[in-house]
């Protein structure tokens, strides 16, 4: 019953807001069209763009890696971070996919998710139920109970604002003392090696600036040709997520630097001394070579399809392999985990294709995955 | 999730045997008319959807046990919808048929030779089997000299419009709503549940809106083009419980708008009816 209440509230809060944003800022639709073309260009030649991106990261003073599997990603992160560190994580579903948080904890680090939703599900020891709103399944009342049990400092009948304030107070010290910040990336510009991140909480800015080391982990599907395309991706993503304008847009190209003495650019300055970008493959490059599955890789993770899907509305986190839930998750469960079962639950309602900013014909992709799954069984 | 491999085997076996998805008494399919000619260039094509839809919930409850009880599937031919259910389905088909005839369309009907469209194979992702079976359906149409097919439900219409993706299909497919003259309503106020396929795959949402002359209670968050949810019916062969959860949620939001509900599809009718707090009618029952 609590899922029904929580998702109903989320739909009623979010869906009209997205309509309003798109009406007030119609240029977003033009940017979305351009972004689709830019992303397709990369996906049609992904190997080339991966190499180009890693070269660009190096030129910007950072370290770039391609991890074929989650195991490889964990190994790379493990070597960079080491043991006994305090790690703050901005929201990264790819980090979840690769099991980074649990791995670092097992390796002897103190690790805190700092996105509010991620923090809540870390406390609750639950999987994310939505690609950008991981705690969408929790009602305010449940959040209050959870915080009371795990960190204290909230009273019965707390307001949304009071609950957020308590988490802010708790995490502030973690940000200040963190040795490593780990984020995802909404887009990666192959021409400059720049990662683009949008957020509203400020936790990503904290996580990527305050610690001496910044590690970004994301999928190879997030590569776009240029920094201009990366800008489009973050604007489109935030608009279709109903969070426009985004409170913060972060661009990071290598470690911090300054050119204030004789205009000579030196590094580091106030921000991180090291910047690492890990690009995870985990089935994406193979999918990019399949003309139908390639469409799935266009997804920019706005999470809009979830809130228009009757099956997600009914089943929530039970539909898909977390973090990949909902219609996009049914595609991605196959791309990443080779699991065709979530696709079988597509009732071809078609709302998802109507609202997708990348115009992905999600029911068509899912029909194809059903076919592949049926052939596997046969 | 149900054992779809066994379901596939049952479907293919029955389609090969009698061009129906499961053993059925064909008299149920054909009982709605005796007046239409058996051959002609233009046919009304029911795919036996309205007639058999009342049995779908029974089949769907049986599917989780299909692997163990596969040998019992021939007994399905003994199942019959109730007299009231059958009369209602026949009434819908007669109204559509009469409305088409009234427009001067010379309709034929294939009676016992009318094959199932293969929609279920398509929707479950058995695309190879769908392609093979659809070719047989096409051959049947060609043998009978059919040049134009008038569909009456969205699943059949959708399946036929997909044939050309798999092979060369040169038969015209049109839906009844594109052809009929609608009457004024019955004076009642309704809300509406659009068929997902008509609305978002077949571009017929506006055509239905244009023909429905009764007063509709709409809410952008419930009946909007990209907010209106599925009835859950297409999910039933995969997971009946999940299908019911979708159906309950959909019926609940529609019940808040009106106690009278219009649907456009026989599957939506049988799926939503048990959960909707009020009366459900097919659009053909009201506007024809």
TrEMBL record, chain A:
Domain of life: Archaea
Record has Protein biosynthesis as a keyword: no
Single GO MF annotation: oxidoreductase activity
Keywords attached to this entry: 4Fe-4S, Electron transport, Iron, Iron-sulfur, Metal-binding, Repeat, Transport
Protein name, UniProt field: 4Fe-4S ferredoxin-type domain-containing protein
This protein's record includes keyword Ribonucleoprotein: no
Signal peptide range in chain numbering: none
GO terms of biological process kind: lactate metabolic process
Residue ranges occupied by any 4Fe-4S ferredoxin-type domain in the UniProt entry: 289-320
Pfam families: Fer4_8 (PF13183), LUD_dom (PF02589)
InterPro entries, per database record: 4Fe4S_Fe-S-bd, 4Fe4S_Fe_S_CS, FTHF_cligase-like_sf, Helical_ferredxn, LUD_dom, LutB/LldF, NagB/RpiA_transferase-like
TrEMBL record, chain B:
Domain Cysteine-rich intervals: 91-158, 190-272
GO annotation, cellular component aspect: plasma membrane
Entry coiled-coil feature ranges: none
Protein's name according to its UniProt entry: Fe-S oxidoreductase GlpC
GO molecular function, one term: oxidoreductase activity
Highest classification ranks of the organism: Archaea, Thermoproteota, Thermoprotei, Sulfolobales, Sulfolobaceae
Source organism of the structure: Candidatus Aramenus sulfurataquae
Superkingdom of the source species: Archaea
Alphabetized InterPro entries for the sequence: Cys_rich_dom, HdrC_iron-sulfur_subunit
């Amino acid at each position: 019953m609590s899922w029904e209440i929580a998702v109903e509230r989320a739909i009623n809060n979010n869906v009209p807001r997205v309509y309003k944003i798109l009406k007030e800022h119609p240029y977003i639709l033009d940017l979305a069209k351009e972004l689709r073309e830019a992303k397709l260009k990369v996906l049609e030649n992904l190997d080339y763009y991966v190499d180009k991106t890693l070269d660009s990261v190096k030129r910007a003073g950072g370290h770039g890696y391609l991890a074929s599997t989650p195991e490889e990603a964990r190994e790379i992160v493990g070597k960079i971070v080491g043991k006994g560190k305090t790690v703050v994580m901005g929201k990264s579903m790819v980090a979840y996919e690769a099991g980074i948080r649990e791995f670092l904890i097992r390796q002897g680090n103190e690790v805190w998710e700092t996105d509010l939703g991620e923090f809540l599900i870390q406390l609750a020891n639950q999987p994310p139920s939505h690609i950008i709103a991981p705690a969408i399944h929790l009602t305010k009342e449940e959040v209050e109970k959870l915080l009371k049990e795990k960190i204290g400092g909230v009273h019965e009948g707390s307001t949304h604002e009071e609950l957020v304030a308590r988490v802010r107070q708790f995490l502030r010290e973690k940000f200040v003392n963190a040795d490593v910040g780990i984020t995802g990336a909404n887009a990666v510009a192959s021409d400059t090696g720049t990662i683009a991140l949008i957020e509203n909480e400020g936790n990503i800015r904290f996580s990527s600036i305050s610690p001496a080391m910044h590690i970004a982990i994301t999928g190879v599907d997030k590569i776009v040709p240029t920094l201009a395309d990366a800008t489009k991706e973050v604007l489109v993503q935030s608009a279709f997520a109903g969070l426009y304008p985004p409170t913060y847009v972060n661009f990071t190209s290598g470690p911090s630097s300054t050119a204030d003495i004789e205009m000579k650019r030196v590094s580091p300055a106030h921000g991180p001394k090291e910047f690492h970008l890990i690009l995870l493959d985990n089935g994406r490059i193979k999918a990019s070579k399949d003309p139908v599955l390639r469409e799935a890789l266009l997804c920019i993770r706005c999470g809009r399809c979830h809130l228009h899907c009757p099956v997600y509305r009914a089943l929530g986190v039970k539909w898909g392999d977390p973090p990949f839930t909902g219609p996009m998750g049914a595609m991605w469960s196959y791309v990443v985990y080779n699991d065709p079962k979530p696709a079988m639950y597509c009732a071809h309602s078609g709302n998802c294709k109507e609202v997708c900013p990348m115009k992905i014909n999600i029911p068509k992709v899912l029909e194809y995955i059903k076919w592949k799954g049926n052939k596997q069984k046969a | 999730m149900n054992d779809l491999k066994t379901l596939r085997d049952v479907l293919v076996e029955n389609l090969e045997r009698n061009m129906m998805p499961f053993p059925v008494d064909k008299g149920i399919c054909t009982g709605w008319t005796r007046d239409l000619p058996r051959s002609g260039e233009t046919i009304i094509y029911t795919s036996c959807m309205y007639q058999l839809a009342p049995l779908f919930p029974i089949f769907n409850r049986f599917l989780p046990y299909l692997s163990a009880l596969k040998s019992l599937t021939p007994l399905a031919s003994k199942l019959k919808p109730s007299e009231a259910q059958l009369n209602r389905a026949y009434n819908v088909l007669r109204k559509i048929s009469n409305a088409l005839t009234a427009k001067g369309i010379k309709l034929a009907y294939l009676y016992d030779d009318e094959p199932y469209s293969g929609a279920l194979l398509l929707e479950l992702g058995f695309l190879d089997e769908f392609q093979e079976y659809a070719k047989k359906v096409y051959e049947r149409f060609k043998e009978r000299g059919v040049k134009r097919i008038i569909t009456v439900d969205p699943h059949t219409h959708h399946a036929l419009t997909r044939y050309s993706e798999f092979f060369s299909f040169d038969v015209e497919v049109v839906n009844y709503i594109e052809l009929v003259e609608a009457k004024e309503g019955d004076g009642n106020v309704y809300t509406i549940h659009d068929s997902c396929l008509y609305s978002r795959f077949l571009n017929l949402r506006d055509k239905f809106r244009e023909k429905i002359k009764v007063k509709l209670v709409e809410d952008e968050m419930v009946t909007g083009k990209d907010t209106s949810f599925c009835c859950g019916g297409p999910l039933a062969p995969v997971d009946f419980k999940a299908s019911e959860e979708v159906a309950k949620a959909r019926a609940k939001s529609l019940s808040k708008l009106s106690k009278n509900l219009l649907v456009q599809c026989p599957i939506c009718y049988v799926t939503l009816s048990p959960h909707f707090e009020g009366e459900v009618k097919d659009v053909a029952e009201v506007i024809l």
